[in-house]
Amino acid sequence: MILFADVILPLALADSYTYIVPKELEGAIGPGYRVIVPFGKNKFYTAIVLKIHQNKPENIALKEIHSQLDSNPIVNQHQLKLWQWISFYYIAPMGDVYNAALPAQLKLESKAYVSLSHNYQDVNAQLTPTELEVVGYLQENKKPKQITELTRDLDNKNILAHINALSAKKVVSIGQTINTKYKEKTENHIRIHPQFDQSTAEEILKGAPKQIALYEFVAGYLNEHNVTSISRKELLADGTFTSPILSAVLTKDVLEQFEVSASRLNRKAVETNVAKELTPHQQEAYEEVKAVFEEKDVCLLHGITSSGKTEVYIQLINDAIERGEQVLYLLPEIALTTQLTSRLQAVFGNDLAIYHSKINDNVRAEIWLKMISDNPYKIIIGVRSSIFMPFANLGLIVIDEEHDQSYRQTDPSPRYHGKNTAIMYAHFQKAKTLLGSATPAIESYYNALSGKYGLVRLTERYQEMEMPTISLVDTKDLRRRKMMTSLLSPLLIEQMEEALANKQQIILFRNRRGFAPILECKNCGFTPKCEHCDVTLTYHKYQNKLKCHYCDASYHVITQCPDCGESSLQPLGSGTEQLAEEVSKLFPDSVVARMDTDTTRGVMSYEHILSDFSQGKSQILVGTKMVSKGLDFDNVRVVGIIQADSLLNFPDFRSHEEGFQMITQASGRSGRKNVAGTVVIQTSNPHQPIFDYIKNNDYQSFFNAQLAERNMFKYPPYYRLIVIKLRYKYENNVSQAADYLATLLKKTLGERVLGPAIPAVGRVQQYYIREIFLKMEMGFPVTKVREILKQHEETTKLRTKFKYVRIHYEVDV
Known about the structure:
Layout: E1 4-8, E2 17-20, E3 34-39, E4 43-53, E5 67-68, H1 77-89, H2 94-101, E6 109-116, H3 129-141, E7 145-146, H4 147-153, H5 159-168, E8 172-179, E9 186-192, H6 198-204, H7 209-225, E10 230-231, H8 232-235, H9 243-251, E11 255-261, H10 280-293, E12 298-303, H11 309-322, E13 326-330, H12 335-348, E14 352-355, H13 361-371, E15 379-382, E16 394-400, H14 418-429, E17 432-437, H15 442-449, E18 454-458, E19 469-474, H16 475-480, H17 490-501, E20 505-509, E21 518-521, E22 538-540, E23 545-547, E24 554-556, E25 569-572, H18 576-586, E26 592-595, H19 605-614, E27 620-623, E28 636-641, H20 645-648, H21 655-667, E29 678-683, H22 689-695, H23 699-713, E30 719-728, H24 731-749, E31 753-757, E32 763-764, E33 767-777, H25 782-797, E34 806-811
Parallel strand pairs: 12-17, 12-18, 13-15, 13-16, 14-15, 16-17, 19-29, 20-27, 20-28, 26-27, 28-29
Antiparallel strand pairs: 1-2, 1-4, 3-4, 3-5, 6-7, 6-8, 9-10, 9-11, 21-25, 22-23, 23-24, 30-33, 30-34, 31-33, 32-33
Helix pairs in contact: 1-2, 1-14, 7-9, 10-11, 21-22, 24-25
C-alpha cells in the first residue's frame, strides 16, 4: 500500500500539498517532521508533515518526498493544531503561519546556480552580446554562480531571459543546491596527545620552559577537573600563555587541537534566591487566582500600577514548575524582557530563555531545538512570536500588559492577535492563562464581568505607596497668554528642576519619533511626501534625513522648495528627537537618554538604555510608548505626558481606550519606591471627561462610558469587527474590485457590510488600498463567515482585471 503525506510548505499557500512517501521513509516520518520536497520545476523546500494517510488524490500527478531531515518531529501536535486554528480563524494561508512559526534557520531552501555545460563547445558566433558576456563571466569565475549574483555583477535585471536562452542552446546548465541555514557553533579545544606520556612530552619540549609550563598547566587542569580537554579560549584567557607558544607546542604533536560543538545559549551560573514574600494584598490575590483556576481556564488580574502583579506571577510560575509544567511569559515589547529576565533569573536561574526577533537567528534555532530536547527550558519569556514555541508540557501562560495592541500582528501575514492565540494554545495544551493589566482591554474586562473569565483585583500599591499626583496643564491657554514658548510647560519645568535637585529622575512620554512629523514651506505650504506612500515625510535631524514611517524609505533633506523656489522650509510639530534636544538645552548638566525605534535597532540597545537609566547614569528618559509599559525604576519622581491630545484624536474607535491606557501606564512609572510621584499631562483640551477618569484612577467609570458607546455603534465586545483590505498597484482596479466585492457581500450579509472606503493612508509601498468593514453579531458562526468571505473572494478573482488584486483579512480588530 502506497503512503501519502500532506505537507505544509513555507509559501503563501492556503492548503497543504500531498506527496508520495518513498518506501525507505515509511515508518520513519510522521506529523511534525521536516522533509525536503520538490515544488515547481526546479525548487526544493523544507516542508512540515501534517499527516500520513493512504488516500490518493484524484487526477493529480504526485511527486515523491526527496528526503527526511529529522529523526524526531520538530513541531508537536499541539502546535500543528494551533497553526490550523490560526489559518482558519484569521483567514490566513497555512504557509504564512508556518513561516511565522518556525525559525528561519530551520527552513532549508534550494537556490538556482548557473554553470557552463560540461560538453560546452565554442559557439560564440551563435550568441548575442549579452549571452557572450554571461559566458565570459562564468569562464572568469570558474565556478557556478547564483542568478542573483549574475544580475548584480552584470547589472542586468533581465538576465534570466538570457540564461534561459543559453540553457536552450546547451551552453549553460541550471542546477539546484539545498542550503542549510543553521550552522552548529563549534569551538577549538586542546587535549594531550594520547601517544605521549608526561615524561616523553617534557623530553620533546626540553629547552623551551614556556612550552613546558603550558603543557604542565594543561595536564594539571585536566586532572583537577576530571575532563579530557580545555577550550583554547579559556587556556589563553588570562594572558599567561600566548597563541605563538601554544602553536609551537601543537606543531610538536605533544598537544592536539580539535573542534567540539558549543552552545550559543548563555549557561553562566546564576545565583538564585527564594521568591519575595508576598504582601497581604498580593497573597490574597494569589489565593484568589488559584481558586479561579479551579473552575476557569482564564483569569484576569486587574492590578493598579505598582501593585506588585509580577510577584504574584512569580509565585504562580513557581507552582507550575513544582508540578513539572512549563510556563510561557508573554510581554508586548522586547524592551520589557530585559528587566523581567533579571527578576525571574534571580528566582529560577537558568531554567528560562528569552525568545524574540532581536535575537540572532542561530540562537533562536538553538532555543527551539532545546525545547524539543529531553531537557527543555521550563520558562520562555518573549513577545507574541514565542507563542509558536514547541512546549511539551505547558501548564501556564502569563500575558502581562494584556491590553497592549502590540500583541496584534498586522503585517505580514498571518495577521493574528497574540493574546487570543495564546489563550487557544493554552486550551489545546489544557493549560491555564493569566491576563494581567492595570488598564485591561475593554473586551477582556467585559469577558471577566460576564463570567467567561475569572476576575481578581489588586487595588493597593506595593508597601502602601501613594498613587502619583496628576496635574493637567492647558497648553492652549498658556500659549495664548505667551507663558509657554517651549515643548515643556512652566509647571513641568518646575517639577523637573525640583526632582533633579533632589537627585531624582524623570520620564517624558511623547508618542511620536523623529524630530518633526512635517517639513513645510512657509511661503507656499509645500510639504515633502513619500514617493511610494500617501504620507508626509518625517524629519530626522540627527541623521539629516526625511523618512517615511510606513515603507522606511529615506530621502535627503531639501533646503529649497521645489514649488516656489524659496529657501523657507521649516519643521512643524515635534517628536522624541526634538524633545530630547530641547530638554538637553534646558538641563545641560543632566544626561538625557532617548528610547524609540530609532535608538533601539541594535540587539543590546534596549538593555544599555534601561541599564544606564536604572543605574542613574542618565537622569531624564525621553521616549515613545516603549517607556509607558511595565518598566520599574526606583528613583523616578516626575512623568511628563507631552501633547496628550495626539493619543486621543486618532480616527479609530479604540483611540480613547488606547490613550487612557498609555497615559495611565506612563503615569504609573512615577513614585514606585518610597518617592511621591508627580505626573504632568499637557493638553490643549483639559476638559475632556477622559482626563477625569485618569486623574481619579477610575477605570470602572471609563469602562462603563466606553461600553455604552460601543453598544450604541455596534463595536466590540458586542460585535466582531473584520476588516477586508484590498491592495493593487493601479488605483482604478482596486477601487472597482472593492466595489464589486462589497456588492457581493452586501447581497449575503446586508447591513453588516460597510464600505468600501479609502483608509487614512490610501497608498503604501506603491499599492493603493481600499477597506471593507464587517460588523458581525457575536452569535454569527465563524465557519459561515469564513465560507462567505472566501467564496466571494474567489468570485472576485475570477474577473480578469481583479485577478492580481491582493485581498487579506484582519479579524477582531
